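User: I'm putting together a teaching handout on how sequence relates to shape, and I'd like one worked example. Could you take Protein phosphatase 1F from Bos taurus, show the sequence you're using, and then write out its predicted structure as tokens right after it?

Assistant: Happy to. First the sequence, then the structure tokens directly below it.
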Amino acid sequence: MASGAPQQNGQTAEETPGFLDTLLRDFPAPLSPESPLPWKVPGPVLTLEEVEGELAEVAMGFLSSRSAPPPLAACLAHEAVSQLLQSDLSEFRKLPEQEEEDGDRGDRAEEKAPVTLLDAAGLARSLFDRLWQACGQWQQQVPAAARAPQRQWLVSAHAIRNARRRMEDRHVCLPAFNLLFGLEDSVDRAYFAVFDGHGGADAARYASVHVHAVAARRPELAADPAEALRAAFRRTDEMFLWKARRERLQSGTTGVCALIAGNTLHVAWLGDSQVLLVRQGQAVKLMEPHRPERQDEKDRIEALGGFVSHMDCWRVNGTLAVSRAIGDVFQKPYVSGEADAASWELTGSEEYLLLACDGFFDVVPHQEVASLVRSRLAGPQGSGLRVAEELVAAARERGSHDNITVVVVFLRDPQDLLEPEPDAPRS
């Protein structure tokens, strides 16, 4: 639940010692070389630039699966990952494998530059040892950052595969953005995102791990968060394209993210996943999705030598129905990795943000979102936590066959939304 001032989560303070005790009871010693890892290794190798995002994802997933209080999980993950990054990583270095012919790599200088590859399994095992050490130390004294009052959020998220053979969507809800990346300035930050993959889930999964990790380290983050998000999309696209060429991946993903920094909302997007702001019961359009039929997108594609044609829908070069995305290695540069971004000051009259993929917005117009949410909140089982699930069901009932993901970030207490506005006529 978002509020104007930080609120102490008493339950978190009470749960922290018990959580640490339980974890150390279940894992009384660091893992032996023969012991299985308690999490899935993120692939065989990682580049140095991928390490922070991938290991933070692994640690947060493990701690969340054990019901760690979110602020504690973020602080522990940051402690373990930062300790590992400060160590000598040369022991994890793997010799580069000549998996591709020079012709497959192209002529770009950055693709010919040597890239250090690190053993992902070794890094994951070392990460657990550092996580275990931090838990042991924090049993005696939990750091102030993990005990400090945090702004409280109510977020409802739901996703379904629907009629598709595979689930290619991914979403991110990270209220503890600052804690996960050790940001110590006075600006509260929370991050939310939806990524809608196509041609496989690799690109969507990669973007859900790396966009926010890259943004957190961008020098523009403090002064120009929107530009930091744009740069993060661009760099994540470059990172994934290198991985795609090396591992012969063909997937891509659209994406939309929202970073709430203090009283300002910053959004960035690629493709047709969208974010909508609802204020005083009215939908506020924040963005224009990237589709091939947009005249400026069509002009850009044709200027590069590509084309836009209509089959069952408008498509780039007769294939993709989106004109911007992370990945899609064989459709670059026609399918661009350059995101758009924008910022809005929040005045306190805003009710919630809704982020969703095209599986939702293709069948639910913007102007109907507020009435749908209100009707769900007013129902006999009305609950802010279940709103996303009910919105997904509504999209499915309206005929959506695609993967559907909806994330609703409440900026006010959901029950307050059922009260008439002060100047509204009463029946």
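A couple of points you could highlight for students: The CA atoms of residues 18 and 360 lie 40 Å apart. The mean pLDDT is 90.
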